[in-house]
Amino acid sequence: MTIENAAPGKDITAEDMRSKFPLAAAKHPGHRSIVEVGGVAFGAETLPVMAGPNTVESRALILDIARTAKAHGASLLRGGAFKPLTFPYRSASYFEPGAEALGWLAEARAETGLLVVTEVMSEAQLPGVCAVADMVQIGARNMQNYPLLTAAARTGKPILLKRHFGASLRDWLGAAEYIMVEGNHNVVLCERGISAPHTHRATSRFLLDLQVVPAAREVTHLPVITDPSHATFWREWVAPLALASVAAGADGVMLEVHPEPARAAVDPLQAIDYAAFSRLMRDLDRIAHALGRQVRPDLREAA
Ligand code: PEP
Ligand code: MN
């Protein structure tokens, strides 16, 4: 099967690349774009790492994690103020902080110099999020919320477009095109796990679609990163899948990091602790370096 004889409407065809997503489509084999976010380049030799808690639980927590993320070589601080939580009920241990957390993210950014990537779930949240965020995250569940994509694109902010867990690569690139058609070409794609029958452990909600990384490179010039935390839902598997992502050609990774993972307000099974994060940053650099890229060259220079 090649792009030339692919099934129309299911597989990605040459005609799709000409007329359905001409802006997102690669124009020639090997066509790659670099997306710049506040001086950090996605799609280049150095792979940016986004790290942080699932949820910006408190000012003290985000400042502590930001300092750690910075010290270990991350470029962006992640963390949700607004969260697409699966269930509507909230408690002291399961909550989203809301707008107040945007101020805490701004403080963490100012102190550490890390860039901020945070999720927006509705158009109404855009002004507040854009006042703080260097990059606006569209979550998996909103990948096909087209009015939100259009509104987010029009802010001019770089967009992190997460793949819906049931979306094909074709659908995902259609969503990217909705952003690009507004004149905003700063789109980074993020694979975060798909729904499929998988593995022996029910706690693993999704399956990291690693093969979408090279597959995407055949048809789009946009950078692709992965989020092994959401994909595996299981902290012991985050490092191996992060390393495999870089081996597969990912342009960066997003990692959930928490000082006391088991006590994280949201998704406590998937965050890694500081020690695991530190080891992973070193190992990511080793894999990247073997492939002509890098994550933390300072560690090698110091050795
Ligand atoms: C997140 O990154 O916090 C998140 C909710 O991810 P996803 O949209 O991939 O589930
Ligand atoms: Mn989550």
Could you walk me through the main structural features you see in this protein, from its secondary elements to its overall organization?
Helix content is 35%, strand content 13%. With 303 residues, the chain is an alpha/beta fold. It has a single domain (34-84, 93-292), classed as Aldolase class I (TIM Barrel, Alpha-Beta Barrel). It has an eight-stranded parallel beta sheet with strand order 9-8-7-6-5-4-3-10. Helix 9 (238-247) runs parallel beside helix 10 (274-290). The radius of gyration is 18 Å and the shape is globular. The model has no long low-confidence stretch (mean pLDDT 95). Residues 54, 80, 84, 119, 139-141, 162, 192, 227, 230 line the site of phosphoenolpyruvate.
Tell me which oligomeric state these chains represent: single chain
Helical content, roughly? 25-40%
In percent terms, what proportion of residues is strand?
Answer: 5-15%
Sheet/helix structural class:
alpha/beta
Q: From the 3D coordinates, which CATH architecture would you assign?
A: Alpha-Beta Barrel
CATH superfamily: Aldolase class I
Overall pLDDT, averaged?
A: 95
Keywords:
single chain; 303 residues; alpha/beta; TIM Barrel; eight-stranded parallel β-sheet; two-stranded antiparallel sheet; binds phosphoenolpyruvate; binds manganese (II) ion
Topology:
Elements: H1 14-20, E1 35-37, E2 40-42, E3 49-52, H2 59-71, E4 76-78, H3 100-112, E5 115-119, H4 126-132, E6 135-138, H5 146-154, E7 159-162, H6 169-180, E8 187-191, H7 212-219, E9 224-226, H8 228-232, H9 238-247, E10 253-256, H10 274-290, H11 297-302
Parallel strand pairs: 3-4, 3-10, 4-5, 5-6, 6-7, 7-8, 8-9
Antiparallel strand pairs: 1-2
Helix pairs in contact: 2-3, 5-6, 9-10
